[in-house]
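User: structure tokens for this one?
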Amino acid sequence: MIPVLTIAGSDSSGGAGIQADLKTFAALGTYGMSCICALTAQNTKGVTLVENTSVEMVRAQLTAIYDDIPPKAVKTGMLSTPEIVETVAGFLQSSEKSPLIVDPVMVATSGAILLEKEAIETYKKKLIPLATLITPNIPEAKVLSGLPIENAEDMKKAAEKLMYYGCRAVLVKGGHLVEDAKDILFDGNQFYSFAGVRVETENTHGTGCTLSSAIAAEMAKGLSLPDAVREAKKYMEGAIRKAATDSVGHGHGPVHHFWFYGNNWGKIE
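Assistant:
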């Protein structure tokens, strides 16, 4: 089994956060582990309460995992306070290195704010410099870069600026743009463009968590970064397509993490 770790918040409705990450890891044939940094009371309609985990508990979870099952790749999601960001960054800095995918979760699909403003600077100074890849969407890339983003060229400029924080690569996700769902990857030397097909659906809860987890899983299996992003995009698009016709909840429904199992889903032969 290939162990992969998510360091993020819990989503009680199962569509995003730790739950989405673990589903993605399982769907892509890896062994998922978790360090829970926050509890959220939420569903497809919104977030009603957030309680952050103590830094002592965050550190203890990470210590327990690395003492027994060091991960082949790590992804971070919701790290909502400066103290949690600093604790996670400090631990990863001193631990066995593996690919680190940082999804700078700031706002939920429902619009709820998930990151304290003070934590943004800590992200820039402490965590992003450790990242193999950061995966901001358009609103997150705007906040982190301070640049306007209206098209693919703006995405490239933002990616170049975000590299200044010390990460090895940036994937700016274009799903918030009107014309297409193109993503731009920049590794400091070359730009890669990943075209996407826009699916008409409101069931996009957990898309950011799922994509970054898929990239981590594919890298843990040995794929190069561009190939991992390409395979993760294929998985993500299938999950969104299936969710468009097979949804749960009364708000922004989750993507379907096990879409490719088809009619065999839920059956043991």
